[in-house]
Amino acid sequence: MIFFFLWGLCYFAIFKFSPFSSLKKGQLLFLKIFDIEEELYCGQIPGIYALEEYKFFGTIFHELLEYSRVFGLPPNSFIPRLRVYLGRDLRFEKEVEKIFWEGMAQFLLIFIISWAFKFYAATIIPSSTNYWALILQISGPISFVLAFFFLRKQILLPFSPYFGAYYKLWALLKVGCSTGEILGKSKVLELRPKASALKQIHRKIKRPLKSWEQQGTPIAPLIELVMEELWEVYDQEFQRFHKMLKIISFLILAFFYLGAYFMLVWGSLAPFLIDLEG
After folding, report:
1. Where are the domains of the chain?
2. Taking the CB of residue 40, how many other CB atoms lie within 10 A of it?
């Protein structure tokens, strides 16, 4: 039974489950943006492009390139900077991928060592299988995966609508659309941030936006500053995600796997110790 669980865990982790399946799409998007940038710099008119969907980057690139085609938004005003941020995001994702699979590899290694010891000890001192230890070790990777998705959802996903709204706002302002069209398409005033970092950023732009809407106060420089700050906060949150993932990996290793290992050691040696006392 242990062998089948081990085989199933490896098969599922490697072939059926990949929390980083979108990373390949991000890399393809990065290469595609390079090609588009080269075409545009050679004088080609912006066209309709098929872009990979990677987080919010694919949508933002698609919409801004559409604004370039329809409204004449200069591609060099957004492509180089966004490409840099995309490359940085891909590097962060690769680091997260490394942390994730290193954690899974450690879980698997201790699982193998634990049960190899158990089977070896059973050939010398017969003992029953400790199912509590098995349950603990099965729960370890499941808890790690659930924690991974929960943290990603709580920390990183809330940024997507803000990047989309702010870039639409910036682009529509740059091409000179009407106030109603800008606010209607960007939907920036409809955003309701919950995270404290996003609340602080959005608060900086909300009141000036209303002033711009009512009095026509220039707001484009402020939007660019707010977008820069949003990227900075996004990077900080990604780093926090890294640290929390490492901490959770360590805690699962210490509690679920080392705890189960000591249970197996005690279960294997207990009959021998009882015989010695007898």
Report:
1. 93-268
2. 18
Distance, CA of 22 to CA of 17 (rounded, Å): 12
The pTM for the full model equals 0.80
Over the stretch 41-62, which tens digit does the pLDDT of each residue have?
Answer: 776 766 677 888 888 898 899 8
From the DSSP assignment, how many helices (H) and strands (E) are in the chain?
10, 0
- Short-list 108, 129, 97, 131, CA closest to 7: 108
Say if residues 14 and 127 touch (Cβ distance below 8 Å). Answer: no
Structure tokens that stand for 106 in this block: 């450690």
Q: SS3 of 219, please?
A: coil
Task: Please state, in angstroms and rounded to a whole number, the distance separating the CA atoms of residues 59 and 159.
Answer: 13
Q: Are 77 and 46 in contact (CB under 8 A)?
A: no
Structural contact between residues 82 and 66, judged by C-beta atoms closer than 8 angstroms:
no
Please tell me the distance from the alpha carbon of residue 223 to that of residue 218, in angstroms, as a whole number: 10
pLDDT in tens, 126-158: 666 667 777 888 888 888 989 999 999 999 889
Q: Is 135 helix (H, G, I), strand (E, B) or coil?
A: helix
